[in-house]
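Have a close read of this protein, sequence plus structure tokens, and explain what the tokens say about the fold. Thanks in advance:
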Amino acid sequence: MELYIRSNNNSSAIELSNIPVVDYVALYNDLKERMTDSRYHVAHYFATEVESGLRFFILILDDQTSEVLISSFAPDYYSEEGLASLTALHPQFHPFEREMHELYGINFNHHPWLKPLRFSHDRRNRESSMDNYPFYQIEGDELHEVNVGPIHAGIIEPGAFRFICNGEQVLHLEIALGYQHRGVESEMLRNQSRLRQTLLSESIAGDSAISHSTAYVELIEKLGEKGIDQDLNRERAVAIELERIAMHIADTGALATDIGFQLYQVACEALRTMTINTTQAWCGNRFGKSLIRPFGTNHPLTTEKIAMIRNNVKEIRRRYNEVRCDILEAPTLLSRFEQCGLVPTAEMKRIGGVGMAARSSNVRRDIRATHPWGFYGEELVHEPVMHDDGDVMSRLMTRMDEVLQSATYVEQMLANYTPTGKIPTPDYDVKLKTNALSFSIVEGWRGEICHVALTNDSGDIKKYKIKDPSLHNWLGLAIAVRSEGISDFPINNKSFNLSYCGHDL
């Protein structure tokens, strides 16, 4: 029996009956060897309740062939023997197994870090709470602990950072999140209104409203089995690249703030504002809410809006490139960022790192290139920006280069684009394929976003799973600060700029 059914990021929804239900031991033995090859990484892994207990689904990405390998297994729900942990062999599985243990009580034998991932209302162990989180401890008279959070200033969501230090040197950082589990996935099921679900998808992570809503509508469109106008794909790609430009510029300014370079901070704040105001002039919202809708749009581009976007992006690119050149000639900045917060290539592969953080450690993970969808691929051939030092400077360089690259893409996509006026308005009433699995994978500005949905025999969504790239990359931040001075934590944190709410679904 084949262990997987093979699909790709442009394929239609798959009938659940066509997804193999395999023996876990066989799947475990395959993944034990397969995942030693860095061309593979896990996109999603979750369990769902069925009549006989639980059925587990796993999606593995092959970055060489652009295939998505999908499999499932259904062990005895009440088995006390548990399952052999894949995390013990491949750390990239750790958040998925931790979540399934927390929600369903599944024991993953020899898991090295079987701690709560979140603190949801429906967790299996009601005695497990944020107050008794089992932080790692090291004994020693010369060591001390520094606790940051979980309450943070401003609008940052709660998260606890527990440092173990020898003097100023960080020996270990443990990051505990999930204090504000919002129940987004269950809310996706409570009401089957496609409009409401779209609005929820825009709120998964506010700084990635376009990316997450794109993932949602791509998934719904596969279930609806209805063709999409290529002009609509083009406009969605423009929106995603504008979001990337805005957030990378914002992070450039944030890094400058943390080392006292106020001039760069102010310059980036102005350019970021100009970028999000461009999106607002397009659709009425600075973060792109209301722009992405299933099967159509309420805000198709016009000749006037195309001219506005092109002119603004041209000016943003010119002014940002000046900031970039100044940064590369600032000895004080370079001395703080270079060789600070190293995440070696091998470690980034082990933890399953994705997105710009992975590319900064010379790991070629970019869905636009490896698993293209929509306008990416044949229409827009993307070559990922890569840096190989894996330090704060590499993560900043990746951002700066991607701003210029995305600006070029926006110009390419709009240069000879004449709107036909044929893009339809949204359709929220399309019947969805029954008893099917649908997935979508989108490269947001942080990295790989994956949404998966299962439908029942009425075509309603019975399971919805969301993965923000932060789920993979928080462990990268913990690795980056090891052996660094604790005073360098803020710039390392900003160099990743991971999402609390994207984790605390």
Notes: Residues 1-102 form one domain. The chain has a mean pLDDT of 93.
